Amino acid sequence: MAQDKQNLIVLTTDFSGVTRIARGKVRDMYQADENLLIVTTDRISAYDVVMGEGIPGKGNVLTEISVFWFNRMGDIVPNHLISTKVDDLPEAFHNFRDQLEGRSMLVKKANTIPIECVVRGYITGSGWKEYKATGAVCGIPLPPDLRESDRLPEPIFTPATKAQEGHDENITFDQAAALIGTELADKLRTLSIEIYKRAVTEAESRGIIIADTKMEFGLYNNDVILIDELLTPDSSRFWPKDEYEPGKSQKSFDKQFLRDYLESLDWDKQPPPPPLPAEIVQKTAEKYQDALRLFS
Q1: CA distance 285 to 232
Q2: Residue 101 and residue 235 in one domain
Q3: pLDDT by residue (tens digit) across 262-283?
């Protein structure tokens, strides 16, 4: 198998001698002694449907960007990352170095808190649709007469339920509190907004606007820690700061390019996905690589 990280495409993993315990839209998860191994594949999903084609180098980009942010948020909240080195994995994984190098994270095994922690600094996406219909997002009233892509006066916390299949569903803070308890919901809201604000400052210095992002938390030894990915093009909307123009949708460094292409098709957003032309795959790969360069 080729070693070039930008050309190698890993769509699925199957490592003999070790136990795969989960397969998500993008990530495969394995037992690694008392820890977990998360392998970020090159699968890409849109509208909660996994495309048939992979995006070259995508798994490496997501892993490297997550590590970048984990290293910058440790004083706010601990995270699950132990190592990204194949040599630090149990010996059973060492024969699969070509599939693991640059796209795997050895992590602590935490109990996942069952909500998505979404922070929005700009009005866009599903938030824009909800705002146009109700004047609010997840029960939070917003100023009248906002334009698409306007910056909000302050970032807002808009949680969502975590769906194993199908769409996540936006919920109010009160609904989140009913699911996980008010004290924990308060803590996650505070941490999420603090992480987002720090990321915004860092990203803007690199020419990127982070319009919104979602993050996940878990409990490890009864302490809250960050898990999964963090502030990647899959979990966030990244816009080029020098091209920002409110009142319309924005150019992006994330998979919005793919969504826009799919919107141009006569597709009902249900499986099976339409085939992706080679030029769409290549252009999407370039978007991910552009984002990585800005955080390197």
Answers
A1: 14
A2: no
A3: 999 999 999 999 999 999 999 9
Partnered with residue 236 across adjacent β-strands are 213
* CA terminus-to-terminus distance, the chain: 26
**Assigned token pair, 82:** 């132990």
β pairing state of 111-112 and 20-23: unpaired
Question: Mean pLDDT across the stretch 163-173?
Answer: 77
| 254 band by pLDDT with thresholds 50, 70 and 90 | confident
Helix (H, G, I), strand (E, B) or coil at 109: coil
Of 62, 91, 109, which closes a domain?
109
pLDDT in tens, 44-101: 999 889 999 999 999 999 999 999 999 999 999 999 999 999 999 999 999 999 999 9
- Residue 132 is part of which domain span? 112-263
pTM for the full model? 0.93
Which among 59, 104, 108 is positioned nearest to 82, based on CA atoms?
Answer: 108
Q: Are 89 and 106 in contact (CB under 8 A)?
A: yes
Q: Write phi, then psi, for 231 (nearest 5 degrees).
A: 55, 50
200/258 same-domain check: yes
Does some domain include residue 211?
Answer: yes
- Strand-pairing partners, residue 211, are none
For residue 149 the two structure tokens come to: 């892509």
Instruction: Quote the number of domains for the chain.
Output: 2
Burial of 39 per CB tally in 10 Å (0-12, 13-18, 19+): buried
Phi, psi of 198 (to 5 degrees): -65, -40
* CA distances for 266 relative to 1, 45, 47, 213, 274, angstroms: 36, 17, 14, 29, 9
DSSP for 235-276?
Answer: TEEEEEGGG--SSS----SSTHHHHHHHHTS---S-SSPPPP
CATH number of the domain bearing residue 151: 3.30.470.20
